[in-house]
Amino acid sequence: MSKKQRQNPYSISQNFLTSRKTIDKLISKTTIDQNDTVLEIGAGKGHITKALSEKSCKVISYEIDKNLYSKLKPQLNNNIKLRCGDFLKCKLPNAPYKVFANIPFSRTTEIIHKLTSSENPPTGIWLIMEKGAAKRFCGLPKDNLNSLLLKPFFDSKIIWYFSRQDFHPAPNTDVVMLEMKLKEQADIQYRQKNDFKEFLSHSIKNGIFSSRALLTKKQISTALKSAKLPMIPQTGDISYIQWLCLFRCWLKFGKNKRG
Q: What is the pLDDT of residue 255?
């Protein structure tokens, strides 16, 4: 890693989207309107920032690169608040907000974790990222710990597939836009997030039917049958709704009875 990359770790994954036509199409796929405050991560050269300012009430944009920040700041509209700093070290808004950003691919997991683990998460998130990462957060081709931890609170899907030539410089991987919408009614209570993570982490690591499992085979069978859900197949593949059912069973019968 070069000295410049050590000073600015985001620089290793900066692929700028410059076509106003494409940017406008992307924003039209969202629910962003004139009543919204929009948070942008990585203003870059300001192409997305300026478009967002015309579609929303207020834009709060972070740019860690001091040179880009200095060049961009004099060009911006009054409803744009440009901040020079590391988004991952900054506080999120207290009021309702949405997020739209062409994020640095090297920080995808950290950015999503910061946004979704907040006590005041965005009501809508649209992130331009690597296709492989987006699929994992959607639980494709099958769920994983990260996707399962998001699903109680967010509906996630890929809503745009880019050509590599849409960017400058062109990335060496396929890129998409991931949409994450906050559910009006979460599938679990916010205070149960840590318990859900504990249950999933233990069960995925040790196996749902192992000697170290948190539920007995009888408890699993009874819980799924009571919820009118199919039994877990021999392949061991467990759907999100089955995980949710078993988690509720554990909270009721197993969590406080471990020796």
A: 72
pLDDT tens column, 193-212:
999 999 999 999 999 999 99
In 38-100, alpha helices (H): 47-55, 66-72
**Radius of gyration from C-alpha coordinates of the chain:** 21
Residues in CB range of 222: below 8 A, 6 or more apart? 249
Paired sense of beta strands 175-182 and 154-161, if any: antiparallel
pTM for the full predicted model: 0.92
SS (H, E, C) 155-181: EEEEEEECCHHHEECCCCCCEEEEEEE
Tell me which long-range contacts 147-151 makes (C-beta under 8 A, separation of at least 24). Answer: 148/200, 148/240, 148/243, 149/193, 149/196, 149/197, 149/200, 150/112, 150/116, 150/180, 151/187, 151/240
Distances (CA, A) of 218 to 50, 90, 224, 233, 254: 58, 47, 10, 15, 12
Q: Which amino acid appears at position 183 of this protein?
A: K
Helical (H) or strand (E) element with 21: helix 20-28
Contacts of 167 (CB under 8 A, 6+ apart): 15, 16, 17, 175
Give the separation between CA 8 and CA 94, rounded to whole angstroms.
28
Closest CA to 139 of 229, 228, 243, 234: 243
pLDDT in tens, 11-23: 445 799 999 999 9
Give the residues of the chain that fall short of pLDDT 70: 1-13, 256-259
